[in-house]
Write a structure and sequence with these properties.
By secondary structure, this protein is of the alpha+beta class. The chain has helices spanning about 1-5, 20-25, 35-40; strands at about 10, 15-20, 50-55, 65-75, 75-80. The protein has three helices and five strands, in the order H-E-E-H-H-E-E-E. The chain is globular and about 40 Å long. The relative contact order is 0.21.
């Protein structure tokens, strides 16, 4: 999967642009979950899908709506969250 996504280049408005892994490392994709997952999934297999739902990371914190990619590799399901 890393090989497939290494060629994914994302531009977010005129604020920043680069490969998905560069932007993930620089923490530039936060808040762009739907656009990023929608762009990344075209590089994956047809049976991979975008999941959307509410996340609550800590007790007492607000939950927020988020998107991530679910995919299978060697019959094990994984989650890829570029944001």
């Amino acid at each position: 999967m890393r090989r497939k996504l290494s060629e994914l280049y994302i531009k977010v408005l005129s604020d920043y642009k680069g490969s998905i892994f560069e932007l993930m490392h620089m923490i530039k994709l936060e808040g762009w979950c739907w656009q990023t997952t929608e762009s990344a999934i075209i590089f994956l297999n047809d049976d991979d899908y975008i999941e959307r739902g509410y996340l609550k990371l800590n007790e007492g914190k607000r939950k927020y709506y988020h998107s991530w990619i679910c995919f299978k590799f060697n019959n094990i399901e994984y989650i890829f969250d570029p944001c």
